[in-house]
Amino acid sequence: MHVKRWAAGAAALLSAGMLANCSQIFASGDADAGGITTAMLVAADGDAANWISHGRTYSEQRFSPLDSVNRENVGQLGLAWYADMDTARGQEATPLVIDGKLYLTTAWSKVKAFDATTGKPLWEFDPKVPGETAVKACCDVVNRGLAAYGDKLFFGTLDGRLIALDRNTGAVAWEKVTVDQSKSYTITGAPRVIDGKVIIGNGGAEFGVRGFVAAYNADTGEQLWKFYTVPEGGDAKDQPAYLKKAAETWNMDVLGANDAIGGGGTVWDSMAYDPELDLLYIGVGNGSPWNRAYRSPAKDGSGGEGDNLYLSSIVAIRPKTGEYVWHYQTTPGETWDFTATQHIMLADMEIDGKPRKVLMQAPKNGFFYVIDRATGQFISAKPYISINWATGVDPKTGRPIENPETRVDRSGKPALVMPGALGGHNWHPMAFSPTEKLVYIPAFEAGMMYAPEAAWKPDTARGFNVGFNLGAGDLPPDGGFRKQVAGTLRGMLLAWDPVAQKARWTVEHPGPWNGGLLATGGGLVFQGTAGSEFNAYDAANGKKLWSFAAQTGVVAPPVTYTVNGEQYVAVLAGWGGAYALSVDGDIIDRKAPVRNISRLLVFKLGGTAKLPAPPALADMPLDPPPSTAPAEVIAVGQVKYGRYCAVCHAPGAVGSTVLPDLRRAGALESAATWGAVVHDGALKDRGMASFAGSLSKDEIEAIRAYVIKRANEDKALEAGKKIARR
Ligand code: CA
Q1: Whole-angstrom Cα distance, residue 592 to residue 605?
Q2: What is the overall mean pLDDT for the chain?
Q3: What's residue 725's pLDDT?
Q4: Which residues fall within 8 angstroms of residue 390, CB to CB, at 6 or more apart?
């Protein structure tokens, strides 16, 4: 099987059109024998035994031709081995597997290596990210993976470093700071390596940064080029042509006016590469701040103006030089956190009787796009979930037809927008089956209330800088609104026909934020769920063929590989990420609450390993101090909570599902203890930074009063019920 696949891969590599490029590829600084070479990365599809780059191949299809585990025998799949992680935060990484060794990143940007058959730990590396970096991250202290080239592994750290490790020993080969660490840049995405250049982006568009992607020499760490996604504020004269063109779509008097209006457009996750066209595709994120009326206000004061290129765009660039080639903007004038950083997947298919080289994406905005990847020409787009911000995409211009009622700016009514800021699909990777000709999408529905904030002021020190009032949609104490919101939440695995632009089948999940996907030659689609399962589905019809009780929510995508001809399936389990931080913890199923048990799970046919029993659930009824603060103090606390606390501890202090439930915090009892944490930073090494630069002592105490009030409201709701808690 292995040999045959290699031959097929080589044949594909040498097929028409590729030939011209091959000489370049082999001539341009390939790594030493034994290491990962450019030729191996280009031909990765033929190397079924290994998983050598993030999306398995440069096309990022996440399809493995392996078929030893298949529709007929997947019922015999059992646990081969597992490894506990030393962090209890979100686990989002795709492992790499090279010659019988498995490498992965975990929360806090740590790296671990294992024997891929036995699970024996080989080495581990901790970059020692300072705990207080967590406050710069919108969406948990996660890391999505590694790149391999030569004898090295490359990964980014939450505090913005790019590190090269010796793959055999885990020793540091080189390390570079890639960002201005005085700003809230973070790295959570996996690098890619193209022709000896390590490409890495970053995040931070909730905190005012200006997005870019950069390339580094894999041998030395020398920076080779840097590609900004939005213009530099102020005088635009010295910018490259593509940024001068972009500047015409912004209010340049406001862009860059202070550190909180850097424009955003961070490249925090997806990339893909077509070696034949020699184009690198990057997915560009949301605006910073989100609200366009503040980011790029209209000169007449009526709201926002301009498309604000290259926000929410797919951009094609030359990997050698960082030169701009083309772009397609999915959400012009982005204002809802509608990133186009979601998985970019390349495939060749027949559309209207013609073979097309396409690029596909299901970005946050709810449309599934098929784009010509040579030219950036729009081919088609249809909604893959229920949406209300647009009624369609104009087939001639490729522009969305917007619903004006959802474009909230500085005043007027709030709007419930579908999808919300989490999107209809987030970072969780899709997968493609070339046999079924389907794209599998881990999709979900979760609307959001966008409320204008008339007097929003940027805060360059701490907290979300988005230009909406995230505290405004606060929860009435009767619980009715929360049930209503819970009723709108929906999660599903969609099998999407990209030519017909519709779902061929759908698997409904109990709620959003389910795992990334893997499709295999065995006719299977693997997916972990928020409901603590790891499942295999029939790729043709979605029938569930196998399920494993994972004890924890799973968000990461699985991989598969072989060692000595035996096929394994691996997935890094562990609940976390943006939804897990912000979801109403009380709406989760009480009998089986989602929780984080961070652990690598590895399966094979006939595997007999057993997980230890999960820790017992604590019985923790709400027991807050009485609410005695004046209403006006609580009102101040509510607004400040919405601005500075809600994103990690859930809006309305409803519990989150990963970080401490503040309604149950011991510090709630004491103003002094509360102040020591929030003002003095007593827990900064554990991720809770000081907010002294943004909040006065009185405001911090007002937040305590607000959380006490909320805890008492929920205690009243819970009265008479004994509820098992995490
Ligand atoms: Ca964002």
Answers
A1: 28
A2: 90
A3: 37
A4: 365, 367, 400, 401, 402, 403
Contact residues for 106 (Cβ-Cβ < 8 A; gap 6+): 85, 86, 87, 91, 93, 112, 143, 572, 598
Other beta carbons within 10 Å of 565? 9
Q: What is the DSSP string of 613-650?
A: PPPPPEE----PPP--S-HHHHHHHHHHHHHHTHHHH-
- Other Cβ atoms closer than 10 A to 645: 24
Span from the CA of 714 to the centroid of ligand 1 (angstroms): 30
Report CA(466)–ligand 1 centroid distance (Å). 9
Give Cα 299 to chain centroid, integer Å. 35
Q: From ligand 1's centre to the CA of 677, what distance in Å?
A: 27
Question: Distance, CA 169 to ligand 1 centroid (Å)?
Answer: 36
Predicted local distance difference test score (pLDDT) of residue 687: 84
Nearest to 229 by CA among 373, 340, 358, 368: 340
Eight-state DSSP code of residue 231: P
Q: How far is the CA of 616 from the centre of ligand 1 (A)?
A: 35
Per the CB < 8 A criterion, the answer to whether 157 and 189 are in contact is no
- Whose tokens are 């709701």? That residue is 717
Residue 337 alpha carbon to ligand 1 centre in Å: 5
93 close to 144: Cβ distance less than 8 angstroms: yes
Place of tokens 């929003």: 456
Q: How many CB atoms lie within 10 A of CB 313?
A: 27
- Is 70 exceeded by the pLDDT of residue 561? yes
Place of tokens 């949406």: 387
If you measure from the C-alpha of residue 206 to the centroid of ligand 1, how many angstroms do you get, rounded to a whole number?
6
- Cβ atoms of residues 58 and 12 within 8 Å: no
Residue with tokens 């080969």: 173
d(CA 355, CA 377): 15
Which residues lie across from 327 on neighbouring strands? 315
Amino acid identity of 400?
Answer: P
Q: Which of 578, 572, 538 is nearest to 557 (CA)?
A: 572
Determine the Cα–Cα distance for residues 533 and 553; give it in Å rounded to an integer: 7
**Lookup: tokens for 141:** 């202290």
Q: Hey, which residues are catalytic here?
A: 337
pLDDT band at 488 (very low <50, low <70, confident <90, very high): confident
CA–CA distance, 62 with 560 (Å, rounded to integer)? 10
5-33 b/e (C-beta count within 10 Å ≥ 16 → b) = beeebeeebeeeeeeeeeeebeeeebbee
pLDDT of residue 480: 67
Locate 474 and state its tokens. Answer: 């606060």
The span from the CA of 616 to the CA of 725, in Å, is 10
Q: Tell me the β-bridge partners of 436.
A: none
Q: Is 472 exposed, middle or buried (0-12, 13-18, 19+ CB in 10 A)?
A: middle
Residue 30, pLDDT above cutoff 90: no
Residues near 608 by beta carbon (within 8 Å), at least 6 away in sequence: 78, 79
Asked if 412 and 452 count as a contact pair (C-beta separation under 8 A), the reply is yes
